[in-house]
């Protein structure tokens, strides 16, 4: 009986822990990579709640100039941030209820398309309901000699660090993609100008040989 009671007590603890963890402030992050055609503008929308935080970081990882226009608009249409022809940027906003719009504009370029990477981080996106309602589910003062608040703090700390690690890895992948594209572009340019220089050297060498031959031919004719 004692073993069965301990098992049921552990199941009850895990059920309460899941319900509690769902009631704490949550953080979400996601990243996207898309192609922005020349002369086009692409806009995205994110629904936010009051007193939450929206953070966006973007990078142009490929395309001529590695630049793009970027702006963020509030739910009432006000422009909060505007970046003109930049290759990267980071912006953080304390939000209110409504849909936020952020746009990437490549309309200034009529030839080159751009590949853009951006990441969204949403903090304090709490679910609906009373965040303190979980306390009513607890029975007794202590459970297995452990404080529930300490367990939740540790879980949230691990979750936050994992989310931060995932964010850093995404940014490193974006940096790597941009550096690789730059290196490939430089490699092609170096090869092109090397071929041009080689062709110029061959042409100049041929002209020099031709001029020298003509010079000696003229001298021989003048002696005879």
Structure description:
Helices cover 43% and strands 29% of the residues. The protein is of the alpha+beta class and 224 residues long. The strands form two sheets. Strands 1-8-3-6 form a four-stranded antiparallel β-sheet, covered by helices on one side. The chain has a four-stranded antiparallel β-sheet with strand order 2-7-4-5, with no helix packed on it. The longest helix has 76 residues, at 148-223. The chain starts with a helix and ends with a helix.
Spans where pLDDT lies below 50 across 5 or more residues? 1-25
Counted by DSSP, the helix tally is 2
**How can the largest sheet be summarized?**
4 strands, antiparallel
| Radius of gyration, CA atoms, in whole angstroms | 32 Å
Strand order of the largest sheet: 1-8-3-6
Helix proportion range: 40-55%
- Strand coverage percent: 25-35%
Order of helices and strands: HEEEEEEEEH
Residue-averaged pLDDT: 76
- From the N-terminal CA to the C-terminal CA, the straight-line distance is 130 Å
Q: Which class do the helix and strand fractions yield?
A: alpha+beta
Shape: elongated
Strand runs, count: 8
